[in-house]
Amino acid sequence: MRPFLLGVLGCSLVLSVHAMYSASDDVVELTPSNFNREVIQSDSLWLIEFYAPWCGHCQNLAPDWKKAATALKGIVKIGAVDADQHKSLGGQYGVRGFPTIKIFGANKQKPEEYQGGRSSQAIVDGAMNALRSLVKDRLSGKSGSSSYSKQGGGGGSSGGSKKDVVELTDDNFDKMVLQGDDVWLVEFFAPWCGHCKNLEPEWAAAASVVKEQTKGKVRLGAVDATVHQVVSSRYGIRGFPTIKVFRKGEEPEDYQGGRSRGDIIERALELFSDNAPPPEMLEILSEDILKKTCEDSQLCIIAVLPHILDTGASGRNGYLEVMIKMAEKYKKKMWGWLWAEAGAQMELEASLGIGGFGYPAMAAINTRKMKFALLRGSFSETGIHEFLRELSVGRGSTATLGGGAMPKIHAVEAWDGKDGQLPVEEDYDLTDVDLDDDFDKDEL
């Protein structure tokens, strides 16, 4: 099996920042754990690339990014974030495509988009222009310091708001946290605690991002343990701040992550994916369904199932159950899952090289690259798992989608969940028809 092409269907969990940048480079590796310390609290000017290891443009940029980092060493900081692995950081700064380059200057909370060229010389020129602008602002008396403590204060201007942190009390704790369906990260604090004051703006900023990205399914709360001693005593709170994770029907667990907003957001998104339902298994009924599902996902898993007359409802449901189990197993990947009946989307089948035979069939499509990989093994839990596992670790053979574009999709009626029925043939009354006397009965 030949190596899976980088930039096609890569795996964010395996290909880390080290695959593109190493400790020997002058590019600073940035993660949720060090981003606040290295960038937000720094007075330096930063150019930061948000990339994905599977992105071909990112791979092309890497040599120039390294060269620019070396040229700017000691003058401007050059960093890189694997935003495929650290989605919390990418989401925090509105990263939608790769590579995205942002300039973190005087106001670290509102970085600017880098609009220059991608050669090392263009990057250096862009960095020096940004630096000159920063120095000019400082000379004119504008604030040149961008440390978090000088800007963030109580958290109101730091990208988060206290309004997104839920105030929990002895009276509302059980109803909101224990009896609700949401996942909670709860901070137990004391107003006089210095560490709690330091955590406050980070907690507030994280609360805003987590609320938006999980649509309120993961929530951040805070309990003043000096006032609400009933609930604090129940959970044995002895030091401040203490953070606990609450999931419905489970014993609370201690939060073990870092205390920066990036760390908090990353853990919250992990909890969200752990508790999220598997993705919907959608029948391809229109072009909109295919387009939306595939464009919103790095990979789109599409099955072409046998005609209902060949399997009946029970056979089709069997295939769908296998797919649903696999979607649950790989739900953290946030892939899209679709299916179509054989013959319903012939252009799609042709573009995947399925071509009217070999059902059930399955393909994984990367619409950004217009590449796909076909399931070669059995359409079973074992076969599909092996197929998807190979894709996840960057192996497998791929091909270009037929025509280099998404095929035409026909609008079809949704399957009603029942066994198929043969078309009813019309009966014709031939009693009044006179047969020609010359008609040769042997011709029947």
From TrEMBL:
Catalytically driven reaction(s): Catalyzes the rearrangement of -S-S- bonds in proteins
Biased composition (Low complexity): 141-150
Biological process according to GO: response to endoplasmic reticulum stress
Subcellular location: Endoplasmic reticulum lumen
Family indicated by similarity: Belongs to the protein disulfide isomerase family.
PANTHER family for this protein: PROTEIN DISULFIDE-ISOMERASE A6 (PTHR45815)
Residue ranges, annotated region (Disordered): 138-163
Pfam families on file: Thioredox_PDIA6_C (PF24541), Thioredoxin (PF00085)
This protein's record includes keyword rRNA-binding: no
Protein's name according to its UniProt entry: Protein disulfide-isomerase A6
Signal peptide extent: 1-19
Subunit annotation: Part of a large chaperone multiprotein complex comprising DNAJB11, HSP90B1, HSPA5, HYOU, PDIA2, PDIA4, PDIA6, PPIB, SDF2L1, UGGT1 and very small amounts of ERP29, but not, or at very low levels, CALR nor CANX. Interacts with MICA on the surface of tumor cells, leading to MICA disulfide bond reduction which is required for its release from tumor cells. Interacts with ITGB3 following platelet stimulation. Interacts with ERN1; the interaction is direct. Interacts with EIF2AK3.
EC id: 5.3.4.1
UniProt keyword terms in alphabetical order: Disulfide bond, Endoplasmic reticulum, Isomerase, Redox-active center, Repeat, Signal
GO MF annotation list: protein disulfide isomerase activity; protein-disulfide reductase activity
GO cellular component: endoplasmic reticulum lumen
InterPro entries (alphabetical): PDI_thioredoxin-like_dom, Thioredox_PDIA6_C, Thioredoxin-like_sf, Thioredoxin_CS, Thioredoxin_domain
